[in-house]
Amino acid sequence: MLNDSIGKGGNMNEGGNRAGRSNRKRFIVLVVVLIAATAVALTVGFVLHYQINDEDGKGEKDVTTSRMGVLVDCLPELRRHEEKMSGKEDECQRRGCLWRKLSDKGAPWCTYPRSSGYILNGAINETSQSYSAELTRSPAALASYQEPVYDLLSVHIEWQTENRVRVKITPKNVQRWELPASILNIESSNGSVNRNTSLYTVTFTDRPWGVAITRKSSGSVIFNSSFPGMLLADLFLQLTTRLPNENVYGFGEHRHESFKHDMNWRLWSMFTRDSGPNSDWNLYGQHPVYMNVEDDGQANMVLLKNTNAMEVLLQPNPDPAITYITIGGVLDFYIFLGSSPSDVVKHYIQ
């Protein structure tokens, strides 16, 4: 009996020990969970803090990050000198722009916030073949350009043929030099085309204002300027458009190493000069037109009808885009659609 009692007592002690160890394990697990939850909360709060500050143009990031979305450079004068970007955070923020040190070589570190650009001012005047509208500079307009900026713009979008649409943006009530029709005459609509018979649709965004041209048959958005940074001043006109993909050809009168363009933040300047082929220099003339071959083999071409000195900056995947900057004239785009590269060229030279 005594031995039985001792044996039973020993079993009771062992059970108590097991219960104690189990409670300690639960306590340790609870502590670990609480520590992990606290760490996650602090991390989320830290990220949100910087996101909020960045959206206001006041945040500063020294940490190298990867880019997200289409970027428009707010310090274009330093574009070719990445080593000079260091220490420019204050200047970037003075312009009301966002500072992010990016890991993508060649990508701008100082970019326009979403609130910059122009917004729709009043109603859109609509006919079966055109849209007309007035734009006003956003209340959140930036001090990114020192010269006076045009506060009011006129926009005219015209269905010219079933394969061609025109997008023209000019300062309102301001006469600007334009290429005369006697030199390059692109005929307007003959009245036989409208939004129902065309191969494309036209849509808008308001904040910031932008226009998108979409191919009806495939849904491919072949021209989309719905991004911040559009700016029209006397000697500085800027607009960015997103592309369907990186298959870009054109911008002739340069010494290109391949027919297909290198989109990795490549900058091409266009200014007529009497010069032979030499590296990236501009040659005898300029031809601000490109072709984009879409994923299904169809193609589009975009011509900027402007003869002033200009440059285009090519932006790579995952958000391929082109930023135009010119020192005069107006922004007068002609967008052509074709079923193939040869077909779109046929429409272009008609």
Shape assignment: globular
Give the low-confidence spans: 1-16, 43-61
Structural class: alpha+beta
Write the CATH fold name of the domain at 118-349: Immunoglobulin-like
Number of helix segments? 3
N-end to C-end Cα span: 114 Å
Report the sheet with the most strands, covering strand number, pairing sense and barrel closure.
9 strands, antiparallel
User: Which value, in Å, is the CA radius of gyration?
Assistant: 29 Å
**Fourth-tier CATH superfamily name of the domain at 118-349:** glycosyl hydrolase (family 31)
Spell out the key features of this protein:
350 residues; alpha+beta; Immunoglobulin-like; nine-stranded antiparallel beta sheet; five-stranded antiparallel beta sheet; 19% helix; disordered N terminus
Structure description:
The protein is α+β, with helices and mostly antiparallel strands. It has a domain at 118-349: glycosyl hydrolase (family 31) (Immunoglobulin-like, Sandwich). Helices cover 19% and strands 32% of the residues. The chain is built from three helices and 19 strands. It has helices spanning 2-55, 89-94, 341-348; strands spanning 98-99, 110-111, 118-120, 125-126, 130-137, 152-161, 164-171, 200-206, 209-215, 221-224, 231-233, 236-242, 248-254, 266-270, 282-293, 299-304, 310-315, 321-326, 331-338. Strands 3, 4, 5, 6, 7, 13, 15, 16 and 19 form a nine-stranded antiparallel beta sheet that branches. Strands 11-12-18-17-14 form a five-stranded antiparallel beta sheet, with no helix packed on it. It has a three-stranded antiparallel beta sheet with strand order 8-9-10, with no helix packed on it. A hairpin with a 5-residue loop joins strand 9 and strand 10. The radius of gyration is 29 Å and the shape is globular. 29% of the residues are buried. The chain crosses the membrane at residues 27-48. Residues 88-113 form the P-type domain.
